[in-house]
Amino acid sequence: MKKKLLFLFSIAIATILMSFATIQKSYSPDKVQTPEGNGFNIPDNVKSVLDKSCLNCHGIDGKGKAKIKWNYGKMPSYSKSKLISKLSKIEDKINNGKMPPPRFLKKHPDNRLSHEEKETLTSWASGLATDLSK
User: Fold this and answer.
1) Hey, where are the domains in the chain?
2) CA dihedral 54, 57, 60, 66 (to 10 degrees)
């Protein structure tokens, strides 16, 4: 009888410990938290520039040969470090004139970023990366 009680008690303790471990895994303080909860909050002016000049290649349904795809829905699940890295790459590629690529712009001149659009994207990326790193 004592063995059965000890066995049941052990199972109960193990179950409780496993439930705490599951709760702990599901909560990650370095995941990006957004006000909307299910989507990443991107200002309309930034989203319109991304939609116009970036997502033809980098979008989920993009037809270009982009190495990196942009998925608004996945962004809240990224760790802070991954998101900061992506934002830094955006800022770097735009500032260095690598995005949109000159070869692409020859065929699609409407996708060229104006000076104001470049400033909008780089300011947003830089500001958000700074906020996330705090």
Assistant:
1) 29-132
2) -110
